[in-house]
Design a protein that fits this description.
The complex is a heterodimer of chains A (about 110) and B (about 110).
Chain A: E1 9-13, E2 18-23, E3 31-38, E4 45-50, E5 53-56, E6 61-64, E7 70-75, E8 84-92, E9 105-110
Chain B: E1 4-7, E2 10-13, E3 18-25, E4 31-37, E5 44-50, E6 53-57, E7 64-70, E8 73-79, E9 87-94, E10 104-105, E11 109-113
Parallel strand pairs in B: 2-11
Antiparallel strand pairs in B: 1-3, 3-8, 4-5, 4-9, 5-6, 7-8, 9-10, 9-11
Classes of the chains: A mainly beta (about 110), B mainly beta (about 110).
């Protein structure tokens, strides 16, 4: 699986837009990019997934440049409840795989 | 997400005990997973079952023994654990065993080994 690099932590304030960037320089042609969110003492929760360009859902947007060597998770107008760890995962859609969660980005939203 | 349940939610056991963690999914999925999350460490994939067959064993010590009797149930049998095995154990399920399938996680079992 392509290795990913994310900032260890980020701080923001309520109402701001937060952009978390993930680097995956050796992403393969058939790799997808998936983001998960994890609150303390809970299992991760799927946020968004994409292959190229831009994907948007009710929670977030995912921006993927043409070279796909990075991706940016965008959270619009964060609230205190968005304080969590955000994981970027990159891998193929094979039926047999090894899902690797990195250290993630710990986002702290302040009042 | 109430689709994946885990019991017990908390477990304290001695190093000589034998216990089992249970996971049940009500989502009609065919793949189930065990993860370990130690304090301040990334999630570690332990086992993957696809259609009741184990497809991944991520070099997990034999004191952890998984069992998947059917696509809806997954167990993790524990015996002679070490204090460093104390962690949050998470179960997840997905439609298949593919990354593009969203994984749904249970609430986890907080395990403490004394």
């Amino acid at each position: 699986l392509a290795k990913t690099t994310q900032p260890i932590s980020m701080d923001s304030y309520e109402g701001q837009e937060v952009n978390i960037t993930c680097s995956h320089n050796n992403i393969a042609t058939n790799d997808y990019i998936t983001w998960y969110q994890q609150f303390p003492s809970q299992g991760p929760r799927f946020i968004i997934q994409g292959y190229k360009t831009k994907v948007t859902n009710e929670v977030a947007s995912l921006f993927i440049p043409a070279d796909r060597k990075s991706s940016t998770l965008s959270l619009p107008r964060v609230s205190l409840s968005d304080t969590a760890v955000y994981y970027c995962l990159v891998g193929p859609m094979d039926s047999s795989y090894k899902l690797i969660f990195g250290s993630g980005t710990r986002l702290l939203v302040r009042p | 997400e109430t689709g994946v349940t885990q019991t017990p939610r908390h477990l304290v056991m001695g190093m000589t005990n034998k216990k089992s963690l249970k996971c049940e999914q009500h989502l009609g999925h065919n793949a189930m997973y065990w993860y370990k999350q130690s304090a301040k460490k990334p999630l570690e994939l332990m086992f993957v079952y696809n259609f009741k067959e184990q497809t991944e064993n991520n070099s997990v010590p034999s004191r952890f023994s998984p069992e998947c009797p059917n696509s809806s149930h997954l167990f993790l049998h524990l015996h002679t654990l070490q204090p460093e095995d104390s962690a949050l154990y998470l179960c997840a399920s997905s439609g298949r065993g593919a990354l593009t399938d969203t994984q749904y996680f249970g609430p986890g079992t907080r395990l403490t080994v004394l």
